[in-house]
Amino acid sequence: MHAESLWDGRTLTKGHQRIADYISKHMDDIVFMVEEDLAQACQVSISTVSRFWAVVGAKNLKEFKQRVKDEVLLSPSRKLQSAFEKVTDGTAAASHVMASADYLRQTAERLEQAGFEAAAGLLGTAGTVHIYGPGSAEGLAALMDFRLTRFGVPCRRLTRGGHELFDQLIHVRGEDAIVIFGFVSESPEMAVLLEFAKERGCRSLLITDLAVSGMLGQADVCLYTARGELWEFHSMVAPVAVIEALFAAVGKQREAQALHNGEELHRLRRQYRSVLPKNV
């Protein structure tokens, strides 16, 4: 049972979404926390935390903890996480590598096959894939552009923000797809893209590290990737693993085109290797 069932169908403010998102990822820990701990972890006020319980149908934190104990079984992932912590040898490098492994585990636990297949189908059949990856997700957008283009999937990166985004949206067609890397919180641009996709009649894929967000109900397909806590240096290991798996699935769907493009690429490299030698 997922923690999200504790507040399904409820309208949450931005602050309360942040609390719900944190609780979704730390169900084993919430029973040991007080409101001050939760406020600090979510970077919200204590009063925001206090109001949250009534919004989700509980009298207070104590009653909510009891609901957690009654409705949600303690996950074996807690024990696995402890095992990860014991494996580290105390050095910063080893600890960081094990943290990345934990992000992969968290992502795998939430990855549903039906959603993954829907995402691969969306990418593989789109007329053009329009990719929005702001900030740290810019590298993910570039990687997606590179891989899908090699398979013969036309791609365009949405690199502008603010009102300049509209100059790129006018080229989106109904048979296209919009991919959004939505990390940490929903931006005005993300909200516009999701609303625009519905208006234009094209499909949307949201790749996010949020377990609770208003964006989740707006996208046609959502894939979750763990990247760490709000206060941590966010890892891109899990997002890269998810999109690499998507590329493999899309390549399988478009196998004939992918193989043809591979052969043509090899031919061009041989023909022009004296003019444009491969550096790496």
TrEMBL record:
Keyword presence, Nucleotide-binding: no
Annotated keywords: DNA-binding, Transcription, Transcription regulation
Single annotated GO MF: DNA binding
Segments forming domain SIS: 119-256
Ranges of residues in domain HTH rpiR-type: 1-75
Bilayer-spanning residue ranges: none
Pfam families (UniProt xref): HTH_6, SIS
GO biological process: one example: carbohydrate derivative metabolic process
Matching InterPro entries: Homeodomain-like_sf, HTH_RpiR, RpiR-like, RpiR-like_SIS, SIS_dom, SIS_dom_sf, WH-like_DNA-bd_sf
DNA-binding listed as a keyword: yes
Protein's name according to its UniProt entry: SIS domain-containing protein
